[in-house]
Design a protein that fits this description.
Elements: E1 20-28, E2 31-40, E3 54-55, E4 57-64, E5 72-81, E6 85-88, E7 92-93, E8 102-108, E9 115-123, E10 128-136, E11 142-146, E12 154-157, E13 169-172, E14 179-187, E15 195-202, E16 231-238, H1 245-257, E17 269-276
Parallel strand pairs: 4-11
Antiparallel strand pairs: 1-2, 2-3, 4-8, 5-6, 5-7, 5-9, 9-10, 10-17, 12-13, 14-15, 14-16, 16-17
């Protein structure tokens, strides 16, 4: 085994701050054993000395309030680096269905990054999920959460016909959100499988999406009567940083492009989502 290893990282000035953090992890299978960190410039040919090799720590999640309809639980601890972007580690999966309380431990690199963030995702065993992200102190290695207090309404696709023009949404449970994002995808009529995607931004609680009448030069994108959807996705989002529906709309487009997230991995934030037909 060589006593020295070189690693080549390809990046560009548009995808990372200069300098940017790196995290090098040594695994045995899927188990992280040790890590090293440092900073490197994006200048061509820049060299980065490897920091000291350090053992991983264990971050412990103590979760309570795991009740119906929750069937799956996942938790992970990440670091903030390079201007607040999340660097996420491995996730710990809970038993399914979970007991009302559960403790999960995940490996994490102590001291790495500019801050720390925790994520908890629960699902109903089908296509619905809810996610909570919160910032945690760098020195903390435990987090206790009552999941019942984090839940938004569970969103679901409500029209069994799966028709484009009748796409509808329904909600189970209580809680308030800042707004909703809906995505409907269907095949362009008279095309060889070309897909059309509509993204709608709406107030929380919206149950129907009405497609606009398109101008003549875009009429070919209009779904045919009785056409089936290819897919449908919906998100409810709540963040204390959002104080108005207008503010939510200003960031919703970026959220949709990142699967319901903002590129900066905003926290604290709650998301309730569904994906299906």
């Amino acid at each position: 085994m060589p006593g020295e290893l070189d690693f080549l990282v390809a990046t560009s000035s548009g995808c990372a701050p200069d300098p940017f953090h790196y995290l090098l992890v040594a695994n045995q299978g899927t188990t992280p054993l040790a890590f090293a960190t440092g900073q490197v410039s994006i200048s061509p040919g820049a060299l980065a000395p490897l920091g000291p090799v350090t053992s991983f720590g264990t971050f412990t999640f103590s979760l309570s309030g795991l009740a119906d309809p929750i069937r799956t639980v996942r938790a992970r601890r990440g670091a903030l680096a390079g201007g607040g972007h999340g660097v996420w580690g491995l996730a710990a999966e809970g038993t399914s269905p979970p007991p009302s309380s559960q403790t999960l431990g995940v490996a994490y690199p102590p001291g790495f990054g500019e801050g720390a963030r925790a994520e908890i995702v629960v699902g109903d065993g089908s296509s619905r999920f809810q996610r909570l992200r919160v910032d945690v102190p760098m020195a903390e290695a435990t987090l206790s959460i009552d999941v019942s207090n984090m839940l938004l309404p569970w969103i679901r696709i409500a029209d069994p016909e799966q028709l484009v023009e009748t796409t509808a949404w329904a909600y189970d449970g209580g809680g308030a959100a800042d707004g909703a994002i809906f995505q409907v995808v269907y095949e362009k009529p008279n095309s060889a499988g070309e897909l059309v995607e509509w993204v709608s931004i709406a107030p929380a609680g919206t149950t129907h999406v009405r497609f606009p009448r398109l101008p003549a030069d875009l009429a070919a994108l209009t779904p045919a009567v009785g056409q089936l959807r290819s897919s449908a996705d919906g998100y409810l989002v709540e963040s204390p940083a959002v104080t108005s529906y207008a503010q939510f709309r200003a960031t919703a487009g970026e959220r949709m492009r990142h699967g319901g997230d903002l590129p900066s991995d905003t926290a604290p934030e709650r998301v309730s989502g569904v994906s299906g037909r």
